User: Fold this.
Amino acid sequence: MRSPVLGLLLAAACASPAAVEPTVPVSTFVIGAGKPVADLPGESHLKNVRQLTFDGENAEAYWSNDGKQLILQRRNGEMPADQIYVLDLASGDMKQISTGGRTTCSYFMQGDKKVIYASTHHTGNEPPPVAKRTGRSYVWNVHREYDLFVANADGSGTTQLTKEPGYDAEATVCPVTGALVFTSVRDGDLELYTCEPDGSNVKRITNRPGYDGGAFFSHDGRKLVFRSAFPRTPEEGKEDVELLGQALVRPSHMEITVVNRDGSGFKQVTNNGCANFAPYYLPDDKRIIFSSNFEGMRIAQQGGDHKAARNFDLFVVSEDGGEPQRITNSPDFDGFPVFSPNGRYLVFASNRYSTKEGETNVFVAEWVD
Assistant:
């Protein structure tokens, strides 16, 4: 039972977010899952890299609050769509916790007893079809069938959190208050919303034309970092509206953006006109790590290999902007970087060391700042 004093402290924390100490001391836990792999030249910020998954498409791996588990989405050749799994970082044991349909964007809630993810299973076991291109544009699907679901950490007790028509997904959790931020099309455009863990007190955070999504709270709970579409011409804006009518988004021009928790202080961080996504605050809450193809685009535009434009690497940039610092140096995709609660480790997804084309696996490394 929680003491009255502790209850008052937690209530105060929910009213006014403040910095929190790491939940896992550095010396008390060792990652035993997976196997060590060779460090790559030029990746001086990463050491003791371990590969955690070994087949299929594995991505969006996010830490439990105690730093001992990852929750991720995964699909191998035998599966019709991504499902949600929990990976034990000590033993390497991995268990599916979702129940069918198509799933995405899972996250541990405060206390690690419950998880949240988006799913289409309530509309039928058959997953909605995926389109990757329309005309000349590469697109992401924002399936209208997606809703948010909360379940016990073992997958039992699934309950539906959102019931609005259209896309509800991309939920993550404030490490201080336990509040949720998610992306929804409920008001006609893809915007950010916050709510309580039970789905109550929904507040719209962004209010501008174009997609805003993929948000994460800062460690102190005061800010949000996310990806935003910035149409460069009226024609692009019109095309984006038409694509959204087909439940599609064009990700080729998205910039890293920050905003205060209440929606004030909207600020664009990157401005390279490329595909920037998966931002996450470093432990100091002053720098942001993200994935981008802007270096590859630069090579392609300067007459180099046009395939370079498909390569994504990890970069770190100040919240105030400026020239990003390159973190990964793989000729393949690197994305979805997330720091462990104690700040010691970085988990990310990569095509490095893949045995089949299109294979993406999850890696973890010790961070060298």
Summary: The mean pLDDT is 90.
